[in-house]
Amino acid sequence: MSTSANRGAFIVFEGCDKSGKSTQCSLLVERLNRDGISAQLLKFPDRTTTIGKMIDSYLQQSCQLEDHSIHLLFAANRWEAMPKMNELLNSGVTLVVDRYSFSGVAFSSAKPELSMEWCREPERGLLRPDRVFYLTVGAEVASQRGDFGAERYEKKDFQAKVATMFDKLKDDSWTVINADKAVTELSNEIFEHAMNVINSAQTEKLGKLWL
Ligand code: DGP
Ligand code: NA
Ligand code: NA
User: Fold this and answer.
1) Distance 107 CA to ligand 1 centre (A)
2) Cα separation, 57 vs 63, whole angstroms
3) Ligand 1 atom 5: the closest Cα is on which residue?
4) pTM for the full model?
5) Model confidence over 168-195: pLDDT tens digits?
6) Residue ranges of domains in the chain
7) What residue owns the CA closest to ligand 1's atom 14?
């Protein structure tokens, strides 16, 4: 591997359900590619793998899984993607990732049985994102968006708990973005933030999460 080649940036989007993350992730990747910056969209959970299919069936409420056990499957679904993500980043591809370990900890620790400390453990040592864009919308706005309530965690009181967990996980690698605005305005704002991250990532080493 050439030492002079620039690595890609690792950008994560987080937020409660229906915060507009998925739309913004896609728009960002399109815009970057249009501007000649090599970027790829990834999403967790990745429902296409063997582990991902179990997660999908849990989320669609077609099976029950014990709380600790499903937490470990979500983490395993990230670990199985590490070799590919490492390779892409080191070959200069910027990764725009729709949810990551912060969703892992926030959603699981919102359950009464699971502590934040326990939830962090299986996520430790995963690649650390250069920046987290945390999209916020009011609970009222989110719950009125298309098919809210279709999946397991899409309940207003649970989402409010998840939001308090996200607040506890927040550190200075997060940019909090008010997502309660027009799609285009929001995507322009996010693009500006992303360009700063991509430029500064080139001189920084990739880190490991929570070590
Ligand atoms: P999405 O496909 O982004 O809508 O995510 C599916 C749902 O699963 C959503 O309610 C957020 C939740 N979720 C995402 N990642 C994790 C995780 O690692 N652990 C848990 N418990 N929930 C997660
Ligand atoms: Na969802
Ligand atoms: Na808890």
Assistant:
1) 7
2) 6
3) 45
4) 0.96
5) 999 999 999 999 999 999 999 999 999 9
6) 10-204
7) 103
**Would you call 72 exposed, middle or buried from its count of C-beta atoms within 10 A (0-12, 13-18, 19+)?**
middle
Q: Is the CB of 108 under 6 A from ligand 1?
A: yes
**Cβ neighbours for 206, distance < 8 A, ≥ 6 positions apart:** 7, 10, 86, 89, 127, 128, 130
ipTM score for this prediction: 0.96
For 76-98, how does the pLDDT look when each residue is reduced to its tens digit (9 = 90+)?
Answer: 999 999 999 999 999 999 999 99
Report how far residue 46's alpha carbon sits from residue 99's, in angstroms, rounded to the nearest whole number. 10
Distance 5 CA to ligand 3 centre (A): 43
User: In CATH terms, is domain 10-204 a member of 3.40.50.300?
Assistant: yes
